[in-house]
Each structure stands twice: as C-alpha cells, then as structure tokens.
Amino acid sequence: MRLLLLSNSIAPGYGPLEHAHAVLRDVLGDARTVAFVPFALADHDDYTKTVTDALRPVGVEVVGAHTGEPADVVNRADAVFVGGGNTFRLVTALYRHGLVEVIRRRVYTGMPYIGSSAGTNVAGPTMRTTNDMPIVQPPSFDTLGLVPFQINPHYVDTIPGDTHMGETRERRLLEFLEENDTPVVGLREGTWLRRHDDLLTLGGIEAGARLFRRDADPAELSTGTDLSPLLQTTPRFDV
Amino acid sequence: MRLLLLSNSIAPGYGPLEHAHAVLRDVLGDARTVAFVPFALADHDDYTKTVTDALRPVGVEVVGAHTGEPADVVNRADAVFVGGGNTFRLVTALYRHGLVEVIRRRVYTGMPYIGSSAGTNVAGPTMRTTNDMPIVQPPSFDTLGLVPFQINPHYVDTIPGDTHMGETRERRLLEFLEENDTPVVGLREGTWLRRHDDLLTLGGIEAGARLFRRDADPAELSTGTDLSPLLQTTPRFDV
C-alpha cells in the first residue's frame, strides 16, 4: 500500500503542494494519471484546475472525479488524490458516489493514494478527529480506514496567553480519547505521513507531529520518525 | 417562550456565569428549581457541582439531569439549563435519553431555557454550526429548534497576520451557507440572545455579534439590537 497523507497543501513560503514535490514524485512512481476528488470544496472545476497546475511539475495528468461517473474516473486512473476543504461535505459525497468502497479496494490493491487535509482525515477509520464544521450530515462518520489510527491535520499548539474560551486543539483530542480508544496523530502544517506497506514514516518540515493516546501523556514525534508500530493499532470507538 | 442563549459561561475577568447574573434572575423569574443537563462533558457530577455553585447567587436549586431518569428530572423542574462542552456528545445524549422531545415540549409551553455554548448551539434547528470536534456520532444533526436560525457560539474574528492554514470562523460559516439557506448569528464571547415570545434581543458585552446570511455581506450587530425579525426565518438545509 502506498499512501501520502499531507497535513495541508500549502506550507508557508511555498506554492500549492510545492513543499511536497519530491515525495509526491516518489509516491506516485510510474503513475501517469491521477483522479482528483474535489468534493470537499464547492467549486469542483476551479479546485481541479488549481491542483492540475500544482501537479504539473510532478509530471502527471490530473482528471477531476466530477468530470464523469466518479467511481469510473477513479477506476480508470493510476492514482487518486483526495483534496482538502470541508470533511463533512467530502464524506457525504464519497458515500453518495460510491467512492468509499472503490477507493478502498483500489488502494488496498496497490493504487497510490494522496490526501491533503480533509483527504488525510478520511484515510483514518473515522472522521471523528476533523477540525471542520458539520455543515452537512453524512450517512456515517466511518471513512476509508487506510490506516488504523486517527489523524488530526492542521494540528496547532496551544497559544500561550490566548484568552479565547473555546477548547484548544489538545483539549479537543483529549475529549476524543474520553469516548474512543484509538491513537491520534496530530500533524502540524507542512508535515505528512508516508506509508509503504508495513512501513510508516513522518516527513515534512521540522515541526513534526504530536501523538495522543488514551491513558498516556501526549508525545512529540520528530520528522523522520519510524511510526510503523502504529499500523498494529486496533481501533476502538464508543468505549 | 423564555430563552437565554449564552455564547459561553465565562467572560474574561468574571467567574462562571457571573457576567450574566442579572439576566439569569430575570429570565428565571419565579423558577425555584433548575434541571441542569451536564451531558456535553464527561464528568457529570463535577460539572453539576460547578453550575450549582455558579447559580447559588441567583437563588435557584440545581438538580443534575443525570441523578435520575433525565426526562423525569427535566419534567419535575421549573427551568432547564443545558451546559456547554462537546455538542456531538451532548446531542447523542439528548437523543439517548429522550430529552429532545421533552425539552422542546416544556419550553414551548413556557419553561425557561438557559443554554451556554453547546447548550446554545442545540437551541437552533440543527447543530451544523458548532465549533466542536465530532468525537461521537449522534443519530441526527437536528436539534431543539427553539429559534429558527443557526447560532455559532464563541464567535471569533479573523486574526490579522495569522499564518495558520486552517479555515477562519468566517470562512467556515460561509461554507455552511454554501450548503444551507439559514441565517447564522455568530455570538462573540460574553454576549447572549434573549427571547421572550416574539421578542429577540442581543445582550452582553459591547463586542456584540455578527450576522451571516446567504447572498449578503456579513453584518455587525450591536449589543441591545432588536433581532425579532430573525424569528420569522424559514430554515432551509441541504439546498
């Protein structure tokens, strides 16, 4: 299985996906065509154009999943890229178009999967650690399950002196762990997870990631860390 | 109908609910007992104790809805207070305990309703404008519908110069309006909405609120504004 799960598509000081050109080339390998799933944003044509431009230097042809029957577009492509935006909107569309099963089957049989932000969220077993607003109601919070742990993209640290009374990201993830016994990797912006079969590594900028587990203190993860043991996780929800 | 919908329970420089003592007394009127619904947080006893202490100066007796059959506790009380925390956890519990119908019926027949944060979110027709993480999956996003428009508590303005790539609150609410044609009142911290039958007013600290409507620029609302026309809203979702 070949996965590249980006926290986000734009790192400070770079153009869209520019910070990840090298690893994108590596993960895409000899793939020529990429089916782009734009359903997390409202304007599918505009979003597909942005990603087409962003992936041109990587040397692949991009086809919007909305330009035909989405499942057919994904089935005909060499790789799939699920873009960011609103995760509730994305998951609703994945179910509506029968993409949950199609993507899962293709990726489990070797098709490279690229996700960014919401597209990274849905690579976990559920969307329960998304940061997004529930603007539409999907039929289920269950997602692709390409890794057995949860991911929180755009992970941000608590800002000292912040007077806002809303929960911090860390507090939100600890509340997730009150209800569910499944680890969460909080991916800071500019970082990514890369899976090649049984090997899982943390890549990207130096900021790294933060790992949250039930009954354990949160732990810092440095870029380059081998996280393969996380692939042995047995996810448990509503416990 | 008597509602007090607080953005949050703690205003900077005040103890829990202290900023709202006068309006709480006024809305509670001659109510002697308040059923407190603590289900948005994990520790119900601890949360109920905090609220009992916070409401002592207001002169009411607080009973935790978890200390008996929740619907019975609510039915026996003179008023209901739904506390903040995680809205997904709260809504899941409201359905599990049959509280959606019980609270709606009592409040529509005159029982004062106090909400704070998540408890204010659920006073709208849906929970689609909550800021919370979907840590559990409720049977429905539909909520109490005590007002016909949406509320976003803890509303925060965009911070100039913020480099974080996650969506701003305004961006999230505009995405809500891409999918739904229902106004949203973004309540800044320390503010509240008060409904007395057909009269709706914005109260609390000077910061006020921000109104988001489809096909209109967001509008600033000052404290003291009469918002009664919003009660004529016909909410429309998935449009």
TrEMBL record, chains A, B:
A family per Pfam: Peptidase_S51
Record-level GO BP terms: proteolysis
Comp. bias (Polar residues): 222-239
Top EC class, one word: hydrolase
Swiss-Prot/TrEMBL keywords: Cytoplasm, Dipeptidase, Hydrolase, Protease, Serine protease
Protein name (Swiss-Prot/TrEMBL): dipeptidase E
Record has DNA repair as a keyword: no
Annotated catalysed reactions: Dipeptidase E catalyzes the hydrolysis of dipeptides Asp-|-Xaa. It does not act on peptides with N-terminal Glu, Asn or Gln, nor does it cleave isoaspartyl peptides
Any one GO molecular function term: serine-type peptidase activity
Ranges for region Disordered: 219-239
Subcellular location: Cytoplasm
A GO CC term attached to the entry: cytoplasm
EC number(s) per entry: 3.4.13.21
Superkingdom, natural source: Bacteria
Family: Belongs to the peptidase S51 family.
